[in-house]
Amino acid sequence: GYVFYIVILSGIFRLLAALLRLARYVAMIPEQVMMGFVNGLSIIIANAQLHNFKTVAYQFCRPESEYYFLGNRTIAQTMGQSLHDASRAALDVAVVISNTSATGDAHHGECEQPAPAFSHFIGESHGAPPPPGCRVGDWFWQSSYVPSFIVPLMLLHLVMTATIVTCLPRVTSIIPSSLAALVVAIVLEQIWRAASGGDVYTPVVGEVSDLRGGVPLPFFIDPQWLDAGIPSLLEWSTWTNIVEPAFVLAGAGIVETLMTMELVSLRTNTRTRNPNQQLWALGGTSIVAGLLGTMGGDAMIGSTIINLTSGANGRYRISGTVAALTIALITVAISDVIFWIPTGSLVGVMVVVVVSTFSWPSLVILLVALLPQRVREHPRAPRFLRRKIRRIDAVVIVVVTILTLAFDLLVAVIVGVLIAAFDYSWRTALTLKVTTETLTPEQAQRRLRARAAAKRPEQRHPVGVDKGGGAAADGDGSGGDASGSSDGDGVVITGGSGSWASKFALGSRSSKKSKTSSKTSSADGADGDDKKPLTAPAEPALKVYHVRGPIFFGTAQALQVPGVFTPEDDPDYVEVEFGQSAVYDYSALEALNVIGERYTKLGKHLHLRGLNDPSHKVIWKADDLRKHFTYSTAAHDA
After folding, report:
1. CA-based torsion, 142, 145, 146, 148: positive or negative
2. Are 201 and 76 spatial neighbours (Cβ–Cβ below 8 Å)?
3. Maximum distance among all alpha carbons in the chain?
4. Coil, helix or strand for 580?
5. What does the DSSP assignment read for 299-342?
6. Burial level of 155, CB count in 10 A (0-12/13-18/19+)?
7. Strand partners, 545
8. Nearest-angstrom CA–CA distance, 29 and 256
9. Strand, helix or coil at 538?
10. Could you give the percent of the chain with pLDDT greater than 70?
């Protein structure tokens, strides 16, 4: 009774994901995760086809080593009547098998109680005794492989269908290859059944499943669900039972849908302009499916591959629309058509799906990744050994594949992305380099004059800094802290006694008295850059640290290691050049505060210059957290 609530709630979660525009983050999924994803799903699809070669029988535990099994009559026995009617009649038919029977003959009798579900039996079977622990009166089920004479015929259907699906698109794309293959399989099945009088056959869909069509009703008025009982949403236990599975279902559906969309884009050389529309459609249809008492779903990679192999090009919506309308037509009006499709032909279609979906080059890549360097670089080594990828990437492919098989797609993708992200963060942290440069007083003075003489035309600032020399505003109208001021082009530079601006006479003489005095001195400074004399400090003049590489949570600690910055040995005025670096997060901002505090305690000053716009935005929006350094942007320093 919970399943429909789960489907509906998963649809709501998917709509929330669409509202938050989460589809754009599919670009963050690495290629190695995509490989593991398609490989895992291919193995799952292949494994799911094995049940077509098995039969299932419900059995009823009896004393004295006797038991019942419930199932359909053999196909040979039912050829004279409607198979659909025979399948339903079989629900009331049981066969008594005695383990002590010397001949193993089957004796027909009546079921002593109804079976828990529909099941089907092909050919003669004598089964095994009830499993240990089976109590008298209990139902259980056992499965076995189909009779040996049926397997070659099913394999014939499989090979023929796979051949048509593969080869027909090379001749024409007007006729869907999978549809043509199924039609040929149906005709062939009926020919050899009629020619043999029913002795030669393979199972068809209607004989192995209780397939019924019709117009669905909302589950809360459908008699079959009302009789089973529907839990009340007013009970807390209902919510505890549906929220978690609905979240997992929504997440798995979103991930598979978006990754299937990426797979289509790669194979058709197209790009979805608005990937978020997939989530809107997915959420809406899940809610409708739940209300109508159905299971819902998401983008299926198997059906998508069939579509692509049948001629879909990924640019239009025709194939998907036709597929949806066809399924609706079959479900509502002509479900008996599906009844006659041989299961072997369906396996053939799915074999093509598996072969087309599985990333076969990944096997070579994984093999090469395991080989030692001396083997790969041997003078006589074949060319394909030059496909070595980093072993951590190979690990991601294997881990995602295994987790897809063992758990579900959502867990597999999350773990794969986390491993890849950790690896990237670690390698990026190793790229951080800091070099130093010391300027003489003459070099420092020339730099100051060049800055003062530089013409700074107005530029549109990405974070809304007031160009008129006033305090900066970020949506709520608030400026920086009380010590902030602005130079002529709207770049915030903190003043105050001992600041870089006041010591080097850059025209910002604001103090930390009040925000009003900060704005006033900012305006004065903008007008006075070319009027104030430039002065250079006493020896030693200026030390510049050149930072190369991003500063974020992965590199923030490395930047604070003693010896990288040496406040005790540095002059009073220190610059950090960010021309080849950037500030990405709070960890970076706090690391700069810690370094700046070391200089402040010694009466020295730290100034960051050459910040790009994203770095400026990070610092400017957290200006009240910036305490021990000043900064200027690349546009200001140009």
Report:
1. negative
2. yes
3. 117
4. strand
5. --HHHHHHHHHTT--SS-SHHHHHHHHHHHHHHHT-THHHHT-B
6. middle
7. 436, 576
8. 12
9. coil
10. 69
Element (DSSP H or E) covering residue 439: strand 433-439
Note the pLDDT tens digit of each residue in 537-567.
444 568 899 999 999 999 999 999 988 999 9
- Percentage of the chain with pLDDT > 90? 36
The single residue listed with the structure tokens 């008699």 is 223
Q: How many residues does the chain have?
A: 638
Which of 613, 469, 530, 604 is closest to 630 using CA atoms? 604
Which residue in the block uniquely carries the two structure tokens 């099994």?
69
State the DSSP string of 71-120. -PPPHHHHTTS-HHHHHHHGGGEEEEEETT-SS---EEEE-SS--SS--B
Answer whether residue 132 shows pLDDT above 60: no
- CB count in 10 Å sphere of residue 516: 10
Distance CA 34, CA 46 (A): 18
Q: What is the pTM of this model?
A: 0.69
Give residue for tokens 């290859």. Answer: 177
What residue type is assigned to position 150 of the chain? I
Give residue 324's pLDDT.
84
* DSSP single-letter state for residue 607: E
Both tokens of 443, joined, read 């070099």
Mean pLDDT for the stretch of residues 296-305: 81
Residues 248 and 408: beta-carbon distance below 8 Å: yes
Q: What are phi and psi of 424, to 5 degrees?
A: -65, -45
Backbone angles phi, psi at 548, to 5 degrees: -125, 125
Which tops the pLDDT comparison, 213 or 346?
A: 346
Rounded-to-integer distance, Cα 576 and Cα 588, Å: 14
**Both tokens of residue 316?**
């239009």
Take residue 15 and report the two structure tokens written for it: 């709509």
Per-residue pLDDT tens digits for 315-356:
777 877 888 888 888 888 877 788 889 999 999 999 999 998
List the structure tokens of 79: 């050829």
- CA-nearest of 222, 183, 573, 169 to 345 is 183
- pLDDT (tens digit, 9 = 90+) per residue, 403-449? 999 988 889 999 999 999 999 999 999 999 999 988 877 777 777 67
Residue 637, amino acid: D
